[in-house]
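Lab notebook page, bench 4
Experiment: in silico fold of construct C2
Operator: M.H.
Input chain length: 323 residues
Purpose: comparison with the prior construct
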Amino acid sequence: MSAVRSFAMLKNILSTFITRVLGSLLTLVVVVLSARFLGAEKTGTVSLVILAVSILQLIGNFVGGGALIYLAPRNSMLKLIVPSYLWALLTSVAGSLVMEAFRGIPAGYFIHVLVLSFILSLATANFMALMSRERIRAYNVISLLQVVLLFISLSLFLLVFRYREVMAYIYGLYISYIFAFLTGFILIFPYLREKKEGKQPHLLREMFRYGTVMQLGNIFQFLNYRASFYFIEYFINRAAVGVYNVGIQLSESIWLISKSIHLVQFARISNEQDSYKAARILHQDFERRDCCAGISIDHRAGTTNGFVLDLTRCGGRRGRRRL
């Protein structure tokens, strides 16, 4: 039985890694496509919009994030999803207002950031619910199709309709996020009807407690890269943000393997009742992730700033000098 579980886990890790690689490559194509046809300044605006949405999603994940994976096998799914959805609404509205007050959202895109962050937070909660039931394949398919839809919709706007404005990208985000939310909700709906008494007497408090521990690391890692967007826009220009964003996409690819291993094994550990077996899985997780991350870092060390600029070709000579 142990060998069968190990093989199934490795199979899930491999499929997750392949999905993430394909998704990352397609995302890079989307970034380059927008840079070529929208120009550096509009691409920079898109990057700032996505940054604002991502920040709000990070806050939303304090309740509807990774804590769901751990708590769902032990509690009623409905009792977890409802607070996650309400928290997503609260953080999207309140967070958008705060970011607007501090000029963290590009002018004219307040409503879009609010709505997109809300939809994405709902979709993320659905994804975590799927992972709690170890529906790895469904998660991977939806994640990949979400990027595919963004690519197709953006290509239609830019190449077919020749609508080359920031809103072309925004509309693509709407289409891909709504698809991810609806398909995820359809798949988790049967679990919402399960009659299961939760073992935690203060479930909402537990969601915050586990969510806070998990999200603080994610927030610091996120800000380590993305906080630079605001500084680059302030001290250089918005066009430089667009070029820098492509470099970030490339550099973050080194974590594809380790994140794939972590995602699958975290779902397995959360469903494991034997603490000794869970500890063994965790130990194997550390070994595999460290090894794979080291290989990836060594491979990416040769990626240069010149390659990023040549890839986008949206900075121009003046932009290249300033960078």
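Observations: Residues 2-38 form the longest helix (37 residues). The chain has 13 helices and no strands.
Next step: discuss at group meeting.
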